[in-house]
């Protein structure tokens, strides 16, 4: 469109910079947001106690070419770019920095292809996990990764954080399902990685270098995922334990016996009580721990469930019962899925007036050390005098100790931070990792450095510099 | 030991250089080989028609510290280092260059740990695949990756090439089983990547960056692998087809129906005849293609096998029969495993006097394009006037077209090369990759560049430079 005269008039609240003009020219007015409320809304993900800044602008490109335009414009002006999906992350990896260009992929939400023979789907990054799951489900296929946020989080965000979930114990995490990517690099070049084939070893595994890199190496603009045939219906079992140690021992014994449940989750007493308070479901709140297990092995499932029950009883379960039908099984799963909102309510009730804060931690240890981890977290809660509830993917040794703090009380926040650090220290001492599935973001940068050591840190910096020498992409995250 | 006088006397055939002296001081005489026969033996892997040079020396370090010593000494003298395992690779990735230090990991063959609860093993790189398989098998565990070379190839080599095999169709390739690595970098620094836990997202996925990087980024000195419980006994089925297209259609239909065989291999008529000539097994040599399938789903296996049989019949199989017992099933698997030596004999018989050459190709296409690939290879064989037998992992769309040439006849070799290039071109045109499991090495460098394009090549070089700026490690491979 030919503009006559001196260009666009200034807005009163936000002077147009050449950068904003360039972005509007490339993406159109509606995809370049500068409304202060919208900017505030895009400051952070769901991680508590992480720093966040106010972006200069939120962009919503609709295709790869527009992503290139955003990155090139930002690079020309030396303004950092923070990629965002649905901002459901729990490590601050999507938090904005002051003056940044937020690149939101939510408008890139096209499912481009579902191929039942090759068992792949090709999607833009803004497709919501549940949307993809439903679409492939209609063709008898299954996209397994199921993070807690699956109803709202995007595939792009899932890939950028290598999201986990409940099915991982049998079916693995996001990275196992990413065959290929299209990525816009900091240079504005478009890189295609990976393949559409079941196997492939052509060159370095760049696909998996980008998976989990939290937007620090490039912006994902297309994802080719592997699918599985829909699993058989599952059978579900609940085992109630008089101690977390007994529940931990049951998990180890399940693994040692060679059983492969399709779900193996643990809720501690704090969570059982929080869930019952949030939405009464008849959970045994006198139990110290509850294991929720499922098998999806078709005609073998009943035998496998009996095996799980036997192991739980031998490990000291008070009570073991199988869900009588799919409705009861779904209710049990729903109870598990309520852990997060229930604990938020627990924190809000503990410290009224909006002061209840929840630090959602994430630590994974070798399965055999699960009981030691649970014991240790209880000890840390007592020592630091903060309530800590533990919930998580017991079968993977991946626990979420959720630390409740009073935001209005600096001493409480400080005790919460101390507990957080003690849990990280314990996890590493048990041969574990500082993050099983939530990622590093801002929350765990120091602990990542502890875990990988100085050589690992140097290699991370070398790779970051090789791909993003100016530090344009998501500065301050991971490293 | 105190040396008196002017140092070690010169050997007549090989003047000791300061580098050799340093290597002997660090590793001991017996681990530093300069015998010309041994040097020749370490020139190349099993890839035909790939360039290879004569190394200056072959070193056999026994631990990480000695690997560091070799790399530091070579770096000081500006001499390239070529890592080698059992040299069973098929892409020339382990081929020496003139004057290089070969770093053989075969003496690092300790299984350090097997943990049945965490389902992991920790091994040095020189442990033979079959040795690990047997050791974990004694504990009811299973290390799935089973490349054709599994009885002699090493875990380090399997990891460096991201080796595949027959179980991949259900259980995935080597990289799915690598949780963590210890790697000596070109700088001589020791990097630890990954974890011992089932899940972990702490930082960039350096583990998988090293898997499949063919010794160009570092030397692997320890591997932490994930194990599975031993699978149930499998049931095996053979389907005989009047055309390769029908066999390809059967593979697509198996996938579309949501079946997940634990093995799904294809042998074409050339291979059936070569195997019968090599070792008579009663295979139907009049068939155009044979599919070998197995299921290991326990009490569901018979149903699943019936489903496979039904699909094969519907796709036009002449004959479908199930192995009556484990002995017959093992014999069928053995027939498949003889494909490689049988084709070598086929080539030797076709061009006597040691002139029969076999170019073992490796291409993978989306499963739905398998029939088109098989058709295309037959057309290429006719056009280029070279015998090509096709065998491979049909369920993964991963085929090995084996091209027979007369080494003594430059025109035959040239026709073979043309057929090789045409197959690569076809594979890429069908949405495939130039290597499904054998790797790039020397054989496919040009085709890798075709596949990943200029941006992909630039990113590969950037990562190589970031980790090995002087180009010390395995020069000329991959890139």
Automatic annotation (TrEMBL), chains A, B:
Q: What is this protein called?
A: Glycolate oxidase
Keywords from the named record: FAD, Flavoprotein, Oxidoreductase
- Name one matching Pfam family: FAD_binding_4
Name all FAD-binding PCMH-type domain ranges: 51-230
Entry GO MF terms: FAD binding; oxidoreductase activity
Cofactor requirements of the protein: FAD
Question: What's the family?
Answer: Belongs to the FAD-binding oxidoreductase/transferase type 4 family.
């Amino acid at each position: 469109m030919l503009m006559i005269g001196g260009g666009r008039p200034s807005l009163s609240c936000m002077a147009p910079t050449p950068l904003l003009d360039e972005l509007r020219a490339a993406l159109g007015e509606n995809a370049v947001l500068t409304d202060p409320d919208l900017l505030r809304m895009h400051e952070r993900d769901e991680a508590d106690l992480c720093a966040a800044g106010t972006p200069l602008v939120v962009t919503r490109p609709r295709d790869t070419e527009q992503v290139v335009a955003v990155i090139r414009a930002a690079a020309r002006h030396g303004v950092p770019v923070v990629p965002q999906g649905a901002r459901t992350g729990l490590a601050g990896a999507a938090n904005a920095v002051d003056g940044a260009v937020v690149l939101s992929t939510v408008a890139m939400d096209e499912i481009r292809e579902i191929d039942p023979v090759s068992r792949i789907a090709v999607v833009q990054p803004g497709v919501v996990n549940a949307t993809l799951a439903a679409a492939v489900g209609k063709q008898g296929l299954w996209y397994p990764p199921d993070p807690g946020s699956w109803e709202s989080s995007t595939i792009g965000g899932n890939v950028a954080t290598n999201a986990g979930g409940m099915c991982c114990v049998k079916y693995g995490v996001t990275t196992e399902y990413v065959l290929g990517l299209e990525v816009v690099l900091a240079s504005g070049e478009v890189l295609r990685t990976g393949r559409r084939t079941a196997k492939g070893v052509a060159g370095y595994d760049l696909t998996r270098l980008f998976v989990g890199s939290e937007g620090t190496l490039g912006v994902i603009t297309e994802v080719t995922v592997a699918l599985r045939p829909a699993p058989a219906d599952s059978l579900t079992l609940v085992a109630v334990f008089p101690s977390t140690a007994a529940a931990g021992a049951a998990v180890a014994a399940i693994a040692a016996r060679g059983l492969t449940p399709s779900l193996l989750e643990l809720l501690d007493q704090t969570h059982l009580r929080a869930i019952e308070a949030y939405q009464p479901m008849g959970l045994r709140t006198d139990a110290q721990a509850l294991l929720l297990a499922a098998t999806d092995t078709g005609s073998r499932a009943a035998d496998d469930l009996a095996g799980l029950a036997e192991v739980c009883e031998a490990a000291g379960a008070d009570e073991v019962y199988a869900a009588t039908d799919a409705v009861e099984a779904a209710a049990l799963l729903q109870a598990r899925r309520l852990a997060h909102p229930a604990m938020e309510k627990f924190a809000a009730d503990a410290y009224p007036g909006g002061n209840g804060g929840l630090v959602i931690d994430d630590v994974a240890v070798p399965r055999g050390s699960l009981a030691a981890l649970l014991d240790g977290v209880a000890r840390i809660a007592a020592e630091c005098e903060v309530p800590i509830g533990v919930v998580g993917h017991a079968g993977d040794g991946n626990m979420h100790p959720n630390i409740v703090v009073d935001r209005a009380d600096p001493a409480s926040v400080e005790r919460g931070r101390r507990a957080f650090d003690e849990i990280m220290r314990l996890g590493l001492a048990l041969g574990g990792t500082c993050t099983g599935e939530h990622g590093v973001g801002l929350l765990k940068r120091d602990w990542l450095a502890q875990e990988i050591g100085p050589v690992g840190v140097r290699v991370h910096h070398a790779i970051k510099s090789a791909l993003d020498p100016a530090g344009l992409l998501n500065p301050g995250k991971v490293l």
